[in-house]
Amino acid sequence: MNKLYKLLYGLGILAILQTSGCASYYQKNLIFQEHFAKGQIEEANKVLDKNKKAASNNNKLLYFFQKGVVLQMLKQYEESNGYFEEAYIFTEDFRKSYTKEAASLLVNPTVKPYTGEDHELVMMHYFKALNFLRMDRYDEALVECRRINNKLNLLNDRYEKRKNRYKRDAFALNLMGITYEASGDVNNAFIAYRNAYDAYQEDYKVHFNLDVPVQLKKDLLRTAYLNGFKEELALFEQRFNLKYEHKEKDGGEMVFFWHNGLGPVKDEWSINFFIVRQQGGIVMFVNEELGLSFPFPLPPTGEGSGGLGDLKFVRVAFPKYLERKPYYRTGELVVRQKSYKLEDAQNINEIAFKTLEDRMLREMSNSLMRLALKQAAEQQVRNQNENLGALLSVINAVSEKSDTRNWQTLPYNISYARIPLNEGANQLTLKTFSPRKSRNDEQEFEFHAKKGQTVFHIFHSLESIPLNLAY
Questions:
Q1: Chain-centroid distance, C-alpha 354
Q2: How does DSSP classify residue 277?
Q3: Distance of CA 307 to CAs 11, 12, 368, 379, 442, Å?
Q4: Is the pLDDT of residue 339 over 90?
Q5: What DSSP string describes 390-445?
Q6: Which residues contact 305 (CB under 8 A, 6 or more apart)?
Q7: What is the pLDDT of residues 360-389, one digit of tens each?
Q8: Torsion over CA: 199, 203, 204, 209 (sign)
């Protein structure tokens, strides 16, 4: 019994360390989040540097993501990619710790290393590719684009028999086409643009409420023409209701990426389940309101009927996303008194919500299995010692928590525009508009271009409607 008491004491300490009340990951990192959201990137970076132990704990992947983003915003592209490469190596080399897997079933998922949501693993390569493009290193940028394809193929294999709407990343394929074209490879650019068009049309338009960007259609027509693909050019002209007129470029051009707002943060919600005991040691977790029913086999509990069947209902915690709506909804670039609309190309907020929704049934199953094991263990202990059983009951209640970790420095969405530049200096104005254009702000830029050069630029608008996290 002394060994059992020590085990329960250890579980209690672990539960306390892993659960700070009902604080989410966002709240635990509030100082960093506030600096970042206010655009105080130097200060946000200093907060990360003061917490370097985060680079070796269960949240190390998120630390690498955050460092990669803030260093990119500080224009330290090489250093930024160093952290994103660390993140990539971790996700490739990660091996399950069976001790931590078991602990996660007895405590909660936060005792395990965070390994990233599907879209986060893709966006990691997008940020790396952008860094390489800013350094005019096209070959390395293409490596990252190919890694995106490989990552999505692996994810698709994992979900072959399960519902998953995030099968292809249209924006990543679009970026691959942009990169190929900037490097002079118009043949592969055409293929990538065509694949991107298919993904927008078949996946993004249907599942993520995002249509094909007009600029992508123009790029597809242009590369079809440059490759001499007359049949494909005629086909897409008819499909897009656009007539392509080729114009030789007198100067260079710019591809401008606008990272607008901030992506969602994870919180938690809970469901009450009634427990129905059936024959053969089977118990059913039932929520009639939501139409949910999950069976679990449990071992015999010893003396008496006891066990899970004696419980009336239990609470189970699950993750959910909270949306951070961006302050600015649209934007445009003005060059030589001509406007170019920034078109939405990636809605990270929408993808995050849909991917979590797709895996919710799996999430529920894992959470209920955790609860079933907790309650079965509690009853076994009660059969031996009522006081220790009561202690374990408290530990179980305190430790019931969902995993609220996620990459919280991602933008809400990404828009882009391709604009012509003259040789030499170019003055450019970015105009961003709030809903109904009740307010607009302007940013002035100067860019230099050589003939035939593609200049890449990233601009972040971090303004968002604040979260209300009241508990």
A1: 11
A2: E
A3: 20, 21, 15, 5, 65
A4: yes
A5: HHHHHHHHHH--------TTS-SEEEEEEEEE-SEEEEEEEEEE-GGGS-EEEEEE
A6: none
A7: 766 676 667 666 666 666 666 666 666 555
A8: positive
